[in-house]
Specification:
The protein is α+β, with helices and mostly antiparallel strands. 35% of the residues lie in helices and 31% in strands. The relative contact order is 0.15.
């Protein structure tokens, strides 16, 4: 087996592996990942994607890639065919990729959120000095139960998403994740500019599915665009929604606003004939996990988020 730079590989070599990966996303996470993989293929064709690929007799059996963002690197994904010995291959891919990333002079931070399609990664990341967190992929069956949209008796106004809320929502995310575990995992939450970039990624780009403004809501004070809470939703497969963001401003937390927004979004998806809704949550965020469980979500997969340096 050889490990080579991803930019030296051809799309033909990797395409069967990408199709296999798409099948896993569909079967295990109910997610149509083909649009994201098409984007990966375009970068591969341009030899513009950084990472590594494991080749066996000229065929790709595993790959990993990363992107650079100012002073940090984001490990965008890793997949190893389950027909192979995933553990050793995944570790070699990670080791080679992290060596390359750390050789870059501007590299101060590396973030990784890896779905478990590349074999176990915890030991390999921990050995490289990463601090690890467990995240849960949760799913709600929208066909099982229908509740009337809750009434929010707080003097706040409920609106569907409008693009004028980009800046206010970035401010809300920044405030909501101050001193929060998720701000450690994703440092975009630590600044308004970073939160705005995060918002544009989940609303304008295909990595988190097709944004659904009809199932995305904000709570605000009447007469003001300042936001108290927000829930944003995308379509990740036919009939499957995904909550890309749910947050409530400090001082308003603990009063049922998050639950009300989640139920409102779920009911909007039901009216649009969606059958499922998924989300991800950090396991250490016990309050959020318990809320989602009360709403009927169940954990169908756990995966690792890692941050370097400590």
């Amino acid at each position: 087996m050889n490990i080579i730079d991803l930019r030296q590989a051809t799309v033909r070599q990797i395409e069967p592996l990408l199709q296999e990966e798409a099948d896993h996303w569909r079967d295990e996470l109910h997610w149509d990942y083909r649009s994201a993989l098409e984007l990966i293929k375009r970068f591969l064709e341009a030899h513009a994607l950084s990472g590594c690929v494991a080749l066996e007799s000229g065929s790709a059996v595993g790959y990993s890639f990363y992107v650079l963002e100012d002073y940090k690197g984001l490990i965008g994904g890793m997949y190893v065919s389950p027909q192979q010995n995933q553990g050793p291959i995944g570790r070699r891919l990670l080791d080679e990729m992290l060596y390359s990333m750390r050789s870059l002079p501007q590299m101060q931070r590396i973030e990784a959120q890896l779905m478990p399609f590349g074999g176990p990664v915890d030991e390999a990341l921990r050995a490289q000095g990463f601090r690890l967190h467990t995240r849960q992929f949760m799913l709600l069956d929208l066909t099982k139960k229908f509740e009337p949209a809750p009434t929010i008796n707080s003097g706040l106004r409920l609106d569907r998403w409008n693009d004028r809320y980009f800046e206010p929502c970035a401010k809300l995310i920044y405030l909501a994740y101050a001193n929060h575990i998720d701000g450690d995992i994703n440092d975009q939450y630590r600044s308004r500019n970073g939160a705005l970039k995060f918002l544009k990624n989940i609303i304008l780009l295909p990595g988190c599915g097709q944004f659904q403004p009809g199932a995305s809501f904000v709570l605000r004070h009447p007469g003001s665009d300042e936001l108290v809470a927000a829930v944003l939703t995308s379509e990740v497969a036919e009939g499957v929604g995904h909550t890309t963001q749910i947050c409530v401003q400090p001082g308003f937390q603990g009063h049922g606003l998050g639950r009300a927004l989640m139920e409102t979004a779920a009911n909007a998806l039901r009216s649009m004939r969606f059958k499922e809704l998924s989300l991800t949550v950090t396991a250490e965020n016990h309050t959020a996990v318990h809320l989602y469980e009360r709403l009927g979500f169940t954990t169908i997969k756990s995966f690792t988020a890692g941050v370097w340096p400590k």
